[in-house]
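Renewal narrative, Specific Aim 1. Our central claim is that a sequence can be written position by position from structural information alone. The example that follows is taken directly from our test logs and has not been curated for this report. It begins with the structure tokens describing the chain, in the order in which they were read.
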């Protein structure tokens, strides 16, 4: 993956159409290698999460082109290769396993390398169900978090200062009720992407987050039944 990271750093330094088009063959080579990795990760994840077995890289990967319509940053290209492995594919609305290779050397999204599990954009009805489950679950949500590999952390950006409406200030597990995003994230360094069995190492990290992911998807499934 070192060649991919180096290419992305060059793209970050030359984020314009002229440079990109002049290096299009190089982009296509690295894109193909990343798609191969995604296929390998899907196979490894399917061993502990069979719902992913029918997916292909096309179901899970994203275009390199940025949507700049509503952004002050008009850079035309993303500086990462990312994949979201979820039941039914990236557009299914289900929670899943996300990873991307970026330029590294920065702990800010999207420039850091990242592994993530959960949902970064829960519908309001899903949030309500999740919070009710957490209050009434006798600690099962907390136990799901604790099972995740120690490199994963809860995404606390945008967390509420007070419990959301309908939940008293002394509700159990209030720190979880105040979350805006129900997502676990890990930011591996460059070295993580080198060496043998990369797909297995990525999948083994994700395997520890499956109880957490199942918890989120249960709320999503329940919201669809109502």
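The sequence written for that structure reads:
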């Amino acid at each position: 993956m070192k060649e991919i990271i180096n290419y992305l750093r060059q793209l970050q330094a030359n984020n314009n159409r002229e440079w990109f088009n002049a290096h299009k063959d190089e982009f296509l080579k690295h894109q193909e290698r990343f798609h191969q990795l995604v296929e390998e990760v899907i196979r490894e994840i399917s061993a502990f999460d069979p719902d992913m077995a029918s997916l292909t890289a096309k179901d899970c990967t994203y275009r390199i082109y940025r949507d700049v319509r509503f952004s002050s940053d008009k850079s035309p290209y993303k500086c990462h290769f990312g994949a979201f492995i979820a039941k039914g594919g990236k557009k299914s609305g289900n929670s899943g396993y996300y990873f991307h290779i970026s330029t590294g050397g920065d702990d800010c999204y999207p420039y850091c390398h990242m592994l993530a599990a959960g949902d970064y954009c829960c519908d309001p009805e899903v949030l309500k169900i999740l919070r009710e489950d957490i209050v009434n679950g006798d600690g099962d949500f907390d136990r799901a978090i604790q099972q995740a590999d120690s490199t994963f952390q809860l995404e606390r950006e945008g967390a509420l200062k007070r419990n959301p409406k309908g939940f008293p200030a002394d509700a159990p597990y209030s720190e979880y009720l105040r979350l805006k995003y129900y997502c676990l994230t890990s930011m591996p360094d460059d070295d993580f992407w080198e060496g043998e069995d990369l797909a297995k190492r990525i999948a083994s990290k994700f395997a520890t987050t499956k109880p957490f992911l199942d918890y989120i998807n249960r709320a999503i499934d329940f919201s669809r039944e109502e």
